[in-house]
């Protein structure tokens, strides 16, 4: 598997892996009709926006790594009590 693909499939690097898979699966199931998958795209976009804001905040606060690991993300989502996206 190429390095880029491995990085995109790594849950510690890609916080929106499940949303990405859901939108790809929707496209496959609906013969690539984008209108039918718009909710999946919106959820993926909101996921990326949320984790990007977390990453920027951590960078400003000097916390490394900038992107929380998968375990840290589970804790963050647990503390929020619901999915923010």
TrEMBL record:
GO biological process: mitochondrial respiratory chain complex assembly
Presence of the UniProt keyword Nucleus in the record: no
Keywords: Disulfide bond, Mitochondrion
SUPFAM superfamilies according to UniProt: Cysteine alpha-hairpin motif
Xref: InterPro entries: COX23, COX6B-like, Cys_alpha_HP_mot_SF
Signal peptide segment: none
Cellular location(s): Mitochondrion intermembrane space
Main localization, broad class: mitochondrion
Cellular component terms per the entry's GO annotation: mitochondrial intermembrane space
Family classification: Belongs to the CHCHD7 family.
Protein name stated in the entry: Coiled-coil-helix-coiled-coil-helix domain-containing protein 7
Higher taxonomy: Eukaryota, Metazoa, Chordata, Craniata, Vertebrata
């Amino acid at each position: 598997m190429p390095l880029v693909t491995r990085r995109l499939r790594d849950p510690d690097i890609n916080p929106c892996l499940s949303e990405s898979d859901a939108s790809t699966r929707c496209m496959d199931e609906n013969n690539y009709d984008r209108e039918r998958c718009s909710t999946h795209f919106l959820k993926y976009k909101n996921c990326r926006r949320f984790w990007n804001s977390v990453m920027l905040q951590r960078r400003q606060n000097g916390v490394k790594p900038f992107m929380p690991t998968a375990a840290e993300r589970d804790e963050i989502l647990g503390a929020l009590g619901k999915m923010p996206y």
